[in-house]
Write a structure and sequence with these properties.
6-stranded parallel β-sheet, Rossmann fold, 7-stranded parallel β-sheet, 15 strands
Amino acid sequence: MTIGSYALGLCFSISSACLISWIIWRVTTTSQKYPALRSVAILVLGDIGRSPRMMYHAESFAKIQFDTFLIGYRGSKPIPSLTSPPHVHLRYLAEPPSFVTKIPFIIAAPVKIIHQIATIFSVLAFEIARPPEFIMVQNPPSIPTLAIVWIVGHARGSKVIIDWHNLGYSILALKLGMDHIFVKVAKRFEAFFGKSAYAHLFVTQAMHDHLVEKWDLKGKKAVLHDRPPAHFHKTSPPEVHELFLRLGSSLTVPLLQSFLPEASPPYTTPFTQTVNTRSSKNQLNPTSPTTSSRVAMPTLRPDRPALLISSTSWTPDEDFSILLDALKLYENRARALNDKNTDNQTPVSTRKLPRIWMVITGKGPLKEKYMAEVGRLSKDWKWVRCTSLWLEAGDYPLLLGSADLGICLHSSSSALDLPMKVVDMFGCGLPVCALDFACLNELVKDGQNGLVFKNAQQLTDHMEALLASFPSSPALTKLRSSLISASNPQHLGLDMHGGVEGWEWNNWEENWNKVVKPLVLSDAGREQEQWK
């Protein structure tokens, strides 16, 4: 497929979207009803279960008694709070016909767009019988959702809220280049249909400032930084113990068998241990109901490896090769240092380094390529292991809270959004090393709640400095203390500084109630000046 056919197919798709949307408008305006108050349709043109911010929006709307329709594709399980409340209704979009993947892109693109338009319109105009008071749409993707929501909002009298996660055209530019004709067309499409809305939400102040200046957005405007749910927390040793008992099968893969400390479930795991006071009779019957009462609370093992975690979408805006190169450098450094006899009085650069288990979570197109390379390299590694892991939604924050250091490779196609994975890590008390880009300082304060790097060598240097003397690592403890202090429950309801000047922190519910609730409830009493 050539770039020319790519552009032609997608330009035709945009034309199709506009034409069909115009027809939709003409049809729906003949039978318009007044919108139902305290109702919202939230549109995600993607897997609902892999769209945490939009799921959190739905949860927050439901908590204030909004009839909430969450629209998107079936895939990963949504968070548990969305599967039972009476105010939440999941509406799954039909996938495009299977034959679309077998035909040339120049034909498949418009067919896919037309199918998306038809299915989205079917839900917004027919399955939701009464027009919702609000329609919230995630951007990107921009095509065709912005056009559909713009027209359906006008036709049915619903107020449109655009939640700006990033800029759609900037993601397309990663593949085609910023000067490509279709990127320019996509940018104009996004600017036109995204310009006017009842309200605009932005994930960063930088994105707010950029779009207000460049596109002259019309409507109320507010920055809603990503924040973790209230239940995210630093995992306690008993929780770590239970987690790794559940993950037992994932720890027995050949790469890890001779690397992790020996374990004897249910009394020990590679990361935790208990002091067993069972009688000899109960030793013969580990499942005895009296056993658990005679086992001390689990504690962390001093001989455990350092647990590092990186959550990635395996896409071009996250350069996994940086982490791979850093792991190579760490392996070489650990081999050089750990062959020497050193003591705690020597400089940091000559102290022994721990073994590290690097866990990668997430799915994406580049996963197989890089994990195959990791597997090849790991055969010769002594101090480093790197494996991928897929977790249930409930276990993901527990693993984050069990880890010692988080790694973020997000670079942002627009340099205007922030990595939600870092937000999750901070919510679980996990210090982070993050790849630097333009607006990262809205989230990561270098040396205060994390460290920033620009290349593999800097990342390796940070890992060495933070993990020296592990598990008693002063530098790591300092960063973690800052995060835990900022999340202290006694500060709930306030901006949390955690002893770090200029660093505000709270959870999603508090942030949403402060920023979005006044937008959607007329009795919230927020001054208009707030939204300028």
